[in-house]
Amino acid sequence: MMDTPLHHIGRDRSGPGAALRQDSALKHTTGEARFTDDLPMPAGLLHAALVLSPVAHGRLAPIDLSPALAVSGVVAAIGPGDIPGRNDIAQARRPQEHMLAEGLVEYWGQPLAIVVGETRDAALAGAAAVRPEIEPLRPVLSVEEALDSGAFLMPPSVMTRGDAPAAIAAAPRRLSGLFHAGGQEHFYLEGQIALAIPGEDGDLVIHSSTQHPTEVQHISARILGCDHNRISVQVRRLGGGFGGKESNASWVAACAALAARRTGRPVKLRLGRKQDIAATGKRHPMLFRWEVGFDETGRILALDATLAADGGHSVDLSAGVVFRSVTHALNCLDVPAVRIFGAACKTNTVSNTAFRGFGGPQGVLLMEDVTHRIARSLGMTQEAVRERNLAGGENDEATPYGQKLEGDLLRRVWAECQDGADWTRRRAEVDAFNARNEVVKRGLGSFVLAFGISFGILSMNQAGALVHVYEDGSIRLNHGGTEMGQGLFIKIAQVVAGVFGVPVERVRITATSTAEVPNTAPTAASTGSDLNGWAAQLAATTIRTRMAELAAAEWGVRPEEISFEEEEVFAGNHRMRFGELAHRCVQARVSLSSTGFYRTPGLHWDPVALRGEPYFYFSYGAAVAEVELDLLTGEHRMIRTDLVQDCGRSLNPAVDRGQIEGAFVQGLGYITCEELWWDDQGRLRTLGPSTYKVPGSRDVPAVMNVRLLEGAPARADTIFRSKAVGEPPVMLATAVWNALRDAAGADRLDLPATPERLLMAARRGACGQQS
Amino acid sequence: MTTGPIVFTLNGTHRALPPGTSPTTTLLDWLRGPAGLTGTKEGCAEGDCGACTVVIEEADGARVPVNACLAMLGQVHGRALRTVEGLGGPATPHPIQRALAEADATQCGFCTPGIVMTAWAHSREGGDVHDALAGNLCRCTGYRPIVEAMSGLHDDGAAPAPSPTGPATRLEAPGQVFHRPATLEALLSLHAAHPDAWLLSGGTDLGLRVSERREMPAMVICLSDVPEMKGLAAGPEGLRVGAATSYRQLLAVCEADSAMSPFAGLLRRLGSRQIRGMGTIGGNLGTASPIGDALPPLLALGATLRLVGPEGRREMPVESFLTGYRTNALRPGEIIQDVFIPRPPTGALFVAEKLSKRPDQDITTVGLSAVIGLERGHVSLARIALGGTGPRAERCSAAEAALLGQAWSREAVEAAASALEAAIAPLSDLRASADYRRLAAGNLLRRLWHRQTEAA
Known about the structure:
The complex is a heterodimer.
Chain A: H1 25-30, E1 46-52, E2 58-60, H2 66-69, E3 74-78, E4 104-105, E5 111-117, H3 120-129, E6 134-136, H4 143-148, E7 157-161, H5 164-170, E8 173-181, E9 193-198, E10 204-208, H6 213-224, E11 231-235, H7 248-263, E12 267-270, H8 273-279, E13 286-294, E14 300-312, H9 318-327, E15 337-346, H10 360-363, H11 365-378, H12 382-389, H13 407-420, H14 423-436, E16 440-453, E17 462-469, E18 475-479, H15 488-500, E19 507-509, E20 512-513, H16 528-555, E21 563-565, E22 568-571, E23 574-577, H17 578-587, E24 593-599, E25 604-606, E26 611-613, E27 617-630, E28 636-645, H18 653-671, E29 703-708, H19 728-732, H20 734-744, H21 755-767
Parallel strand pairs in A: 1-12, 10-11, 14-15, 18-19, 28-29
Antiparallel strand pairs in A: 1-5, 2-4, 2-6, 3-5, 7-15, 8-13, 9-10, 9-12, 11-20, 13-14, 16-27, 17-18, 17-24, 21-22, 22-23, 25-26, 27-28
Helix pairs in contact in A: 6-7, 11-12, 15-16, 16-17, 20-21
Chain B: E1 7-10, E2 13-16, H1 27-32, E3 53-57, E4 63-67, H2 73-76, E5 80-82, H3 95-102, H4 112-125, H5 129-133, H6 144-150, E6 170-173, E7 176-179, H7 184-193, E8 198-200, H8 207-211, E9 219-222, E10 232-234, E11 238-242, H9 247-255, H10 261-267, H11 273-278, H12 281-287, H13 295-301, E12 304-309, E13 312-317, H14 318-321, E14 322-324, E15 327-328, E16 335-342, E17 349-355, E18 366-375, E19 378-387, E20 394-395, H15 397-403, H16 410-423, H17 434-455
Parallel strand pairs in B: 1-5, 7-9, 8-9
Antiparallel strand pairs in B: 1-2, 3-4, 3-5, 6-7, 10-11, 11-16, 12-13, 12-16, 14-15, 17-18, 18-19, 19-20
Helix pairs in contact in B: 9-10, 15-16, 16-17
């Protein structure tokens, strides 16, 4: 296997496929890049702070804000009664979700009121002075309790194919299992922030660190009770999002908007890290219960599984998360008879939300637990059991909901990964190491992924772009996607540069703005490049067509004969600088501005039958991980990882590699060290990096081989046949779970696999106990 | 005692702050606010993410990265500082800024200025890249490109910017006084006169009260300029370490002293370079935390303290000094002057172990340090100390007794580990359950046997 030196691919080119660096890289390293908190302070700026609930569940008396107003420097204190519009931040309009609690508090850290001060310290002191009156009620803190008492946020989904219970009963062998995966805090380095600046006639400009500017606009308008057209949301960049700034950024911005409306002055709301972690949602913890029937060859005949997501106190995005968990519960495996029960359970914790992978990282755990247990019971390897059941080949390619996987690609990514990882030799080496060592054991694990790309909600699969060409041939690009470090802006600029045949430097990348491109979807679900890339391509192509028509008329050729390359336009012996043609177009009164609009074709879904084709295509990946575990302490270290990721024909291999590596390490944190811990009163106690541990540089495998699957352009009609890459590699870290179980010799290993869980699991394994 | 403005050198330029500037304002708030230098970011305000990393330029050329979120203006008074803006801008980037940009080492870019400053310090200080990066979190890249870029850096050779001369020893703002006494005598008289004043050493703990809790102390007495508290002398018996000596300096001495190498290994995992650049061993002792990282090895080695106060000087073993949960034996007006850390006896086993959820920059779940002496195959000395398993760091006499006089064997270690497990009553909290702590503490002792026999 060769590791392609991705750094150097196409550095000299600038269109699609070139490995260009993040558009702001040098501004980042010099500190010049402005994040929302770095914008120059508008005159008269006020600062807001939130009053958060000190209890997890209780009846809330109308809040007395006078103590806040008594604090020096406090300008206003705002409770739910001060909301001119609707106190509702729900995605769908039902059921209502309060921005500021009314009557009932449902989690520790829930926003109750907003205090506005001349300084941030004054606002914080004012907020601290408020003493909410709450009559405590017993909080429900465990997903088990919620599941067993039927406390669901919405009706559960049940996806079936065949008669799973009967097929399990008839199967030659049966097993059952139970495990729990914890949540995950996004820990974007830049906390939630918004700056709202009032203008004339109720206009409001909001600078927000959001993945969803349109929703910031909609929720702010709903809170203020005004038309959407009064609110303009601008986003140049986010200091990380990862799903945490999809819905949660909206209410933060709406709080700032409300405070600005109330005071008539610009207001900034920046959550400190502890408030941010307390008040904003996380990845859904999930409880899994399963029963499987299989035969002596390891072929799985039937599966009956329950996936119970801890949704927290409100729905937020739980419907979509559960949908994705359920549609990814079999991952890339074929099981003839299945029953998957997926539910969002209600607990008195913060409302869990989008997080890179959106239910996928939880859903794909199921078959790893099942195949691991089957392998142990049959004395096979987990890899053999997985291969026996892989979709395609002699097995069915269709998922239980009817959409087909590509079995050939699945087999290819796994074969390339296994070969590159030198699996056979290393398996023998690990076994030999373990025979020699009593208290330090190594483990080898693998994983294969099929991840569906598209938003689960049909209407969200749309995007717009706005492209202008100026008379000097410079180009201005705007689209609905937000830049949060994932390299979206440079990728879309490459698409546009490619259409016009100009260097990417000629394309000016501009801040996302609801005033330029309206009614957009969030930058989420890995779809940023897929959707916005097409929209920008269409906008640019419209302009290029007009330009080509003019050139064709001048030169007496057909428009199809005109080429745009290297900042020149030519046909036969005719040629002209791109800027010259732009100038002539303006003189000839040809419009050089166009919108572009894209909607993903072919998607359909029957929400009653749970059947259809909800995904435009699947992204495939495979991973092998090796770990070393200390059986005395539960400490482990990563030795090596080999990853193969299908990116189709990559738009930007450097950016894609960064996405793969970064996502894998984020997944590694989910699998190993990132643990959220609540006390028995429902107070989250891991509120900052001192107690909530995301991976550090030493936690990354010393050897991390990353390959983009080559020669595999997307079969769906994606932008330049590329594939999405933001989320899938998060799940490749699942291989680490398998490697740790291999090292620990354990049946059950809950997540995150902290030293404590590993030590206890290894002891159970050593005692030969069933979990 | 001289009263005057807060002064420091910032990016090579002398700055004298306007009268009335609060000396307990964090450096970060001042940079991002009045100074208008927004390149330095706030990621956590608790000294753990590194987004606010700036560098102190020492007169000897050393570059000490620190967390601007924890450093008060009064603490950096008299120093020379550099921020990301002081390295270069987009038109004239420093080679390190260019190297990180070209390596694809930035994605969202919010952690990046802090990483640039860490890298700039590292280009001079050297050492392991992961040690250098332990105080900087990146949530986007997965670190590979950062580590690669940082592995190939060159020292730019730049001389340190000069620090201001003759900075005032007393800083004032409305309702606040910040003292920087320059003699032990002055310190003791201030401390006696103002028993409620904050005694500020590195500020890695107290700094949280201004950074996160937004407190405005009326009086602070900073210990950084007292010469008697700053010495670090290596003698034949051990190290004498001034209480206000930074962990950075202590680590350098321990790294050069083979007998102390286990202690050095533990110190490398204490906080991060940023924390070790400010934090002091006196601060760790003064707070008497039940999990103070450096306390178990001091107990195992039999370290002693010199305390000085209105009634004179006295010496005391560390184990007598730590009296309970966050309490110590200091009398009113008394301070810790220095600590004497004996080397382990020649030929003795010495380990300083720490368990945590993450290897770097994490607070100890369980710490165990031990000094075991062997004579003719029998245990002649056993000093075993634990952290994180009770209200204070302390020795485990049950485990020591189980070992002493026994033949050094797996059975004897097993008996000692069982005795240790029976003797402690740890708590369950966010770091681990009581069961894990008990079992892991015993196993750290068992591991000592495994490691020793493997090495033999």
